[in-house]
Amino acid sequence: xxxxxxxxxxxxxxxxxxxxxxxxxxxxxxxxxxxxxxxxxxxxxxxxxxxxxxxxxxxxxxxxxxxxxxxxxxxxxxxxxxxxxxxxxxxxxxxxxxxxxxxxxxxxxxxxxxxxxxxxxxxxxxxxxxxxxxxxxxxxxxxxxxxxxxxxxxxxxxxxxxxxxxxxxxxxxxxxxxxxxxxxxxxxxxxxxxxxxxxxxxxxxxxxxxxxxxxxxxxxxxxxxxxxxxxxxxxxxxxxxxxxxxxxxxxxxxxxxxxxxxxxxxxxxxxxxxxxxxxxxxxxxxxxxxxxxxxxxxxxxxxxxxxxxxxxxxxxxxxxxxxxxxxxxxxxxxxxxxxxxxxxxxxxxxxxxxxxxxxxxxxxxxxxxxxxxxxxxxxxxxxxx
Amino acid sequence: xxxxxxxxxxxxxxxxxxxxxxxxxxxxxxxxxxxxxxxxxxxxxxxxxxxxxxxxxxxxxxxxxxxxxxxxxxxxxxxxxxxxxxxxxxxxxxxxxxxxxxxxxxxxxxxxxxxxxxxxxxxxxxxxxxxxxxxxxxxxxxxxxxxxxxxxxxxxxxxxxxxxxxxxxxxxxxxxxxxxxxxxxxxxxxxxxxxxxxxxxxxxxxxxxxxxxxxxxxxxxxxxxxxxxxxxxxxxxxxxxxxxxxxxxxxxxxxxxxxxxxxxxxxxxxxxxxxxxxxxxxxxxxxxxxxxxxxxx
Lengths: 385, 297
What we know:
Chain A is of the alpha/beta class. Chain A has helices spanning 10-21, 35-48, 58-70, 81-86, 88-96, 124-129, 145-162, 172-176, 243-258, 261-264, 285-298, 316-324, 340-348, 367-378; strands at residues 4-9, 25-28, 51-54, 75-79, 101-109, 115-119, 139-140, 165-171, 178-183, 267-270, 277-281, 303-308, 310-312, 329-333, 354-357. Chain B is built from 11 helices and 10 strands.
């Protein structure tokens, strides 16, 4: 779509964001509520000479994306919970092999087939720990169709800059909601491309990192040796199945995110400065939470909202800081039975109580029910979570 | 084929679209399979329209497994029933849509056939992902417009030929493989009976038009299905022990109708120009020649 202001849904905005970021390869498998991303890509890709592959399942979808990334394309797949579960092995493979790509997961109610057409936020910890082994991950959680566009661009940039599969964790409400979306002119978009080796093919070590812990990436056919394996590998990329190589490699993969987390981390605050109670909410729920903040403030309760935009890395220092400086309580509103709440609890380090406003999926919290909880917390009527 | 005619194991009142071919197919198949049947189904239209409690249409034990798993879960059911000594006289039926069979469930199906489970696998083929809103599948025929193979300036719609799923299944050497259509119910029922009676895996590929996705009138379903057979677009055959070199074509039209008669009734093919129709006709002619069907009339 040409740079302009549009009235479109989140999934369309996501597809347009990918195209704006330079994505020319998309492999996916139809699944509600992510299907509009496929449909938009199928329609739009012939115009931009992109490759749209509809695969036979989600295992194949992410695998094709990994292959395309190593052939030198910016690649993406889109799915929902059941498909995301199938992708877990290759999510780990892409993390281990440092393959830049983007995985969109539009969350619906689970477990299993669950609520195919309805919202939930149950896949949060799956993005963090769903694949086996110890990993460092980056997950964006958009809260509007505009952010579906912006965060898809950002997800590609982070994937390319830090060489990893980045997850865009949306939900059925944000994906299907129609709102104003501004598609900026190309020159206003900051687009990052993976760094290429500067040394000669003879000197090139494919997994030898620069100071930022990210190794330059040579793709197939660029004159450099390319040897990709999910086995524990040394700087040459060859399997070296021993403790020393494992420690060196996995430590670097985790530190690559940890040590760059100031650059990656993103969150938004609303009326937090003088807040005594802080709601932590992300994705669609953050919209109700924002309304709840205003409603509670009208009743004289000092409430603020902290909205993580990256769920991983998590704004842990900021939450600790707020807890330590005397915030009375945190209230975490999420459409699950408590996932991010334990992160918040960990970050407060016992300085104040953390409460949970859970929801099992199917709809988002109403501002009114959050305000109810805020009254209770404010009057000291709630037991700690 | 009248012994179970009054038996309704797939109850009316389910939520299939008006004119849905799948509903007709399942109803007739269960009449033959009878009450001593355990069914597995996977995600797809069939699950969505027939299992919503308390309106479940199923009068027999049913497991709705994940999308790719109908054949694997059926394998487990079959072995467990055998081990418990309860398999005698019990039929295990695995249902899958075309997506759950041709694409995501293909590996599970191949494994089920290779291991030789006594399961009848029924693929209900409506030639695209209808449940999620008409996306292409490897079952989608050449030239069909779907939401992920849209026809337009750069595309004629689906650009590849339909995967020959029944022949691939037969190539596993399973005791019974057949294609069938809801337009030829007696042929379908005979094949269900044979499939259930053989000891070992059987595969039934059932052609089931979808008015919503194919964009034809909901009262045209059977006619469209019949036209597919009469034009040779969908050939009804059976193969014993996987012998596809000596398969038995069970319904032979006396005179083959031109494919245009089949295509023009469906808006998913509405964009096709004469030269594309000629291309499809040539492919169908080649196939019919192979199956020994009569020349086009």
